[in-house]
């Protein structure tokens, strides 16, 4: 088979490519009408779309937990939040495929994460840290690297350290 996309290595690209092939096949007049290729194509496409949605969710959850951990650094839940970030990273790295990159809008995911973190913090009478930027400070490569470092990501969100008496940090 002349298939550039492997189901096991990039299910998102595979599902999109297979759906496209099925749609082209559906245009052939010599196929039986009972073969509902359009709906079969949609179902296959949905397999990849659900993987993409899962990746977006794991990224958003990483962001939410980073924001909460930076906003309330002494929270009793802090260690749990860091454990959750590690778990979400594990799931993200297991499901992410390179073909998804062009469809991931980190700015949108970031804005949704801020809203979710704010609601969660408000429920516990905590506030969002003013150091949390409105624009996403992370790139996709920060999140999918084998050198994923929660402390380093948290440093990017942490408020600047106050200057000492001599103006140094």
- How are helices and strands ordered from N to C? HHHHHH
Tertiary shape: elongated
- Look at the structure and name the CATH superfamily of the domain at 50-157: Uncharcterised protein PF01724
Number of strands: 0
Q: Compute the number of helices.
A: 6
CATH class of the domain at 50-157: Mainly Alpha
Helix content: 55-70%
- Rg is 21 Å
What is the CATH-assigned architecture of the domain at 50-157? Answer: Up-down Bundle
Give the biggest sheet.
Answer: none
Strand content: under 5%
SS class: mainly alpha
User: The CATH topology of the domain at 50-157, please?
Assistant: Malate Synthase G, Chain: A, Domain 4
Mean pLDDT: 89
Low-confidence stretches: none
Distance between the termini: 61 Å
Walkthrough of the structure:
With 169 residues, the chain is mainly α. It has a domain at 50-157: Malate Synthase G, Chain: A, Domain 4, CATH 1.20.1220.20. It is 59% helix and 0% strand. It is elongated, with a radius of gyration of 21 Å. The model has no long low-confidence stretch (mean pLDDT 89).
